[in-house]
Amino acid sequence: VTRPVRVVVAAAAAGAWVTAATLLWTSSVVPDGLHLSGVDAHRYFGASELRRAASFERFERWDFVAAQVVLVLVLAAYARWGARWSRESAAGRIGTGMLLGMLGFGFVWLAEIPFGLAALWWERRHHLSQVGYVEWIFGNWGELGGEFAFVCLALLIVMGLAGKLRQSWWIPGALTFVALGTLFAFVQPYLLVDVHSLASERPGLARAAQRIAAAEHVRDVPIRVENVSGETSAANAMAVGLGPSRRVVLWDTLLDGRFGDGQIRFVIAHEYGHQARRHIPKAIVWYALFAFPGTYLIARFTRRRGGMANPGAVPFSLLVLVVLSLAALPLQNVVTRRVEAEADWMALRTTRDPGADRRLMQSFARTSYADPNPPTWAYLLLENHPTIMQRIALANAWEQRSRP
Amino acid sequence: MAGVPARIIVRDDLSRSRVTVFFRLLLAIPHVVWLALWSIAAILATIANWFATLATGRPPRALYRFLSAYIRYAVHVNSFILLAANPFPGFTGAPGRYPIDVEFAPLERQHRLKTLFRIVLAIPAALVASVASGSGVGYTGASNTRSVWVSSFTFGLWFGILLFVVAFLCWFVALALGRIPQGFRNTLAWGIGYAAQLHSYLLLLTDVYPNSDPGATGVLGVPPPHPIALRIEDDLRRSRVTVFFRLFLLIPHFVWLLLWGIVVELAVIVNWFAALIVGRSPRVLHRFISAYLRYQTHVYAFATLVGNPFPGFLGRPGSYPIDLEVAGPDRQHRLKTLFRIVLFWPAVFVGWPLSYLLFIVSFLGWFAALATGRMPTGFRNVGAWAIRYSAQTNAYIWILTDSYPYSGPEAGEPAAEPAAEEHPAELEPEEAAAQPA
Fold it and tell me: Cβ–Cβ contacts within 10 Å for residue A279, how many?
């Protein structure tokens, strides 16, 4: 392929990327030009609440940052010396790549344990978690095993394709990962085992949920309650699934009496808003938009080490993957914050209850120690939802607009 | 004799008297009573021996003789009860008179620190022995330390899981044929020999640590040829990193074993019909199932630290240091094929405690390999034995061969001493074990 053709293809790809991203970005129902800053947090929270939330999140943020630094250092060391463990393999090219990938993942897991334990200690200190330290280390080995299996599957795909297509593996590779992401999004609701129906616990709320679903034109999406109160006291909810597997899932901690019915209805409307605005299919498209350049860059960076067909390049590819993921984090957060704001807007339109929204946000800050106004760097790097104050400002903006 | 605390000597010719086999447990009563009484004296002697060895650095000659006679007598009684030997034993533990005998490490100086902590040091060996002969930790249901003590004086009474199963099967075979299979006899001899090593160590006859390696335990002879053979080219070196993460590294292999296994199950059914009709396994199916069996062997070896490198996913011959050689496809007896589903059960019964033994040695081997970067020879060889037996059992179940699995622990090396040649042990297919008495 000649250079001009490459330039044209690259320009076309970039154009397609920008077009798709613009279409996704502008599909939001949240009106442009809303002013979501400048709301005084002291109007909604006491000084001690703000101090406590800031203190709680400060520790968690620095723990996260330290964990990421160690992660990169460990992977950098592994990229430098990891290939030596290929001599411990009697497997072929792909099998050896799997071994190196799993060892790298194993080192990362070991290195991250102290930071995870520190975060757990902090959450236990604030009564947000009831999980024991030993249970935390050994209790999730099934999940950890699943992650090891996924590492192997990913390397099987990448190295299998790289063996056939050499440097062009990233195109079908990215497609395959998008397909896997889609498959996972579809089956995820079926993987939630400890769930029950809302109607069996709160029939009144279940009827309200039906009305909300009908108002948002997603009456075929059922609502379930997941039992998590044995592990955490934090409240949460989520929209999961694709097509026939779509669900709205509430954590049972949301129904333990700390939140009023109005607040819970707002949460339900928010999650149905995700389903109504097709946020999960859109998230898959966003994922594809990141996956193509991501896999291309991995292919490009590992070229000097023989490309992804060579198992010796696997340790370096792990480092590239993690660095790229960290670099993409602020961009991904921009996208998810917009999506969450849209779900909030949908909930405001459906419930017409901005007061419930504000009270909910106040409750979140009190029960989960969410910092209403995090520092800018943390906002850019860590916040995948609008801040509490932005969400309150959104409620205020909707209230202003809906006044006759 | 160097390198092991005690060594088993086998002069048995495999023939058994049906009458004494039938009444074996009753005949053993006087020996059990006498052994129990002797055990009380042995407890006191061992306490005295511990103090004396701590003080002087070597056991007193009289106590050494007394305790070695006690262990030898226990070996004779165990051999008789478990059918590893035929004649009714004497009551004195005299050396050189019984077909299954034991010789001990010579009386030498012992390390005082090893003497001081002997009970603690013996726990790993006792763990292995708890499976092999029932004489170790856990079998008595007491706490670890106490049970090591208790077990050291009661191993003449207790039967281990593995030896019990083998002896149980031997009883039927011996009644039916007047002989027991070589594999069974050698398994019993190994278990009894290892228990003798453990007790020599515990009773302070020597400070040489017990060695579970079948080759070091005693003279076991040469195994019979078998179409499913294990080839070991392992250098015992282990990568500490892959040892540490071994369980996680196995995940893709277990997934692949499961998926491939589903297809193999279907192939085995077709293979059974084909072997029944044409009298041999079709070449394509034989190759396909053999590849899976070989792959399974590689994965089991990797999982249990019997092998070091990460195995490939295709079960290619010669691709792993612990490899399986699968001969054939050879002709198979149609009647054996027809009743295969019944005939394989005795092998499965023997394989169950062997699997447990494999788990124990790999569990202990994990710590040893992590600490030293090497797998102890004994653990590796015992593990290889269990894996080979498992592979032969699966090959038999999956109609790759009609040769019955060989349960003996020998790895194929010729006998180190000529003792066995005085009464050469005849080879006996263990298939007899599967036939009705």
Answer: 20
Distance from C-alpha of A203 to C-alpha of B83, rounded to nearest angstrom: 71
Tell me: the pLDDT tens digits for A319-367?
Answer: 999 999 999 999 999 999 999 999 999 999 999 999 999 999 998 888 8
ipTM for the assembly:
0.77
Band of the pLDDT at B357, cuts 50, 70, 90? confident
Q: Are strands B100-104 and B6-10 parallel, antiparallel or unpaired?
A: antiparallel
Which of A92, A94, A102 lies at the smallest CB-CB distance from B249?
Answer: A102
- Contact residues, chain B, for A97 at CB < 8 Å: none
What is the C-alpha to C-alpha distance for residues B329 and B395, in angstroms, rounded to an integer?
11
CB-CB contact of B76 with B90 (8 Å) = yes
- A92 vs B contacts (CB less than 8 Å): 312-314
B67: its two tokens:
């305790």
3-state secondary structure at position A248: strand
Q: pTM of this prediction?
A: 0.81
Q: How far lies B169's CA from each of A260, B89, B146, B349, B435, in Å? A: 70, 22, 32, 9, 10
Minimal C-alpha gap between B321 and chain A (Å): 9
Q: Does A148 contact B252 at a Cβ distance shorter than 8 Å?
A: yes
A149: chain B residues, CB-CB within 8 Å: 251-252, 255
State the Cα–Cα distance between residues B28 and B101, nearest whole angstrom: 17
Name the residue among A90, A94, A148 with its Cβ closest to that of B309.
Answer: A90
Contacting residues of B for A96, CB less than 8 Å apart? 310
- Bridge partners (DSSP) listed for residue B237: B374
DSSP letter assigned to residue A255 = G
Instruction: List the structure tokens of B86.
Output: 């035929």
Do B310 and A88 make contact, defined as CB atoms within 8 angstroms?
yes
The closest alpha carbon to B416, from B69, B4, B20, B93, belongs to B4
Burial class (CB in 10 A: 0-12, 13-18, 19+), A341: buried
- How many other C-beta atoms can be found within 10 angstroms of the C-beta atom of residue B375? 27
Confidence of residue B412 (pLDDT cuts 50, 70, 90): low
Six-digit token string for A11: 């320009």
Q: CB–CB of B319 and A98 under 8 A?
A: no
